[in-house]
Automatic annotation (TrEMBL):
Record's subcellular location: Membrane
Protein name: Mpv17 / PMP22 family protein
PANTHER family xrefs: OS12G0508100 PROTEIN, PEROXISOMAL MEMBRANE PROTEIN 2, PXMP2 MPV17
Membrane topology, from the record: Multi-pass membrane protein
This protein's GO CC annotations: cytoplasm; membrane
Entries under Pfam families matching the protein: Mpv17_PMP22 (PF04117)
């Protein structure tokens, strides 16, 4: 007797397939597969590339904390000022050296006047302005050109080349720049050509002799141990004491002009 809903087909009794309302029964491997997959560790997230260290800016920040763009030049204010000055030397070398020379000549002339002023005398600001203008217009640019020229002529820093630089400096640059100094200062004071020549005859040789006692040691240190771009700064620093002396020499009264006897 056939069951309800069944039918014969070729001698076989076919029964209808009952589908569960809850869907097909899960495979025995499904639980194992699900557990195996869920037990896998999550894929690792790739690490971000390392951040390169910030480059130090040569300019730095002399008046406040450095920004991320420029970087930190130094922890202290001194390092910031040095970095700021070196940055100016790289960006505007001639202008920076000219301003530096003007500041040093100003300070040296004021010091020279303070040493020689009487109790009732006052500072001669016109004299100080003459010295400052000489430092800005002549001393700063000439030192820049001279040190670059001599470093290309003798690029090595051994003792022999250093002595050569010293000798040429004292034999060539020294007499020329001292002559220019006395002539420039005398011309701004209204002296005539004859009076300027008389002043050079009186003051130039003693000044050169005094320089031979002072500058060789300064030049040796400058040429031997100081980089070329900083040599004008070091030379101007050495020239502070020297400038006190030559500004005093420049302030002396006019030299007497020799008058040729009439025939």
């Amino acid at each position: 007797m056939a069951t309800a809903g069944a039918f014969h087909a070729g001698g076989f009794l076919l029964l209808p397939v009952r589908r569960s309302l809850r869907g097909p029964s899960p495979s025995p491997w499904s639980h194992f597969r699900t557990h195996f997959i869920s037990s896998k560790p999550p894929p690792s997230t790739p690490l971000p590339p390392p951040v390169p260290p910030a480059r130090l800016s040569p300019v730095g920040s002399a008046f406040g904390p450095p920004s991320r763009k420029t970087g930190a030049v130094g922890a202290g204010a001194g390092a910031g000022v040095v970095g700021w000055y070196l940055g100016l030397l790289d960006a505007r070398p001639v202008l920076t050296k000219s301003v530096t020379a003007a500041v040093i000549f100003t300070a040296a002339d004021v010091s020279s006047q303070m040493l020689t002023l009487g109790p009732e005398d006052s500072l001669d600001f016109l004299r100080t302005m003459r010295m400052a203008s000489y430092g800005f217009l002549i001393s700063g640019p000439s030192l820049h050109l001279w040190f670059n020229f001599i470093s290309k002529l003798f690029p090595k820093k051994d003792v022999v080349n250093t002595l050569k630089k010293m000798f040429i400096g004292q034999a060539v640059y020294g007499p020329i720049i001292n002559s220019v100094f006395f002539s420039y200062n005398a011309g701004l004071q209204g002296e005539t050509v004859a009076e300027i020549i008389a002043r050079l005859k009186r003051d130039l040789v003693p000044t050169i002799k005094s320089g031979l006692l002072y500058w060789p040691t300064c030049d040796f240190i400058t040429f031997k141990f100081v980089p070329v771009h900083l040599q004008p700064l070091v030379s101007n620093s050495f020239s502070f004491l020297w400038t006190i002396y030559i500004t005093y020499m420049a302030s002396l009264k006019k030299a007497d002009v020799e008058v040729a006897p009439s025939t």
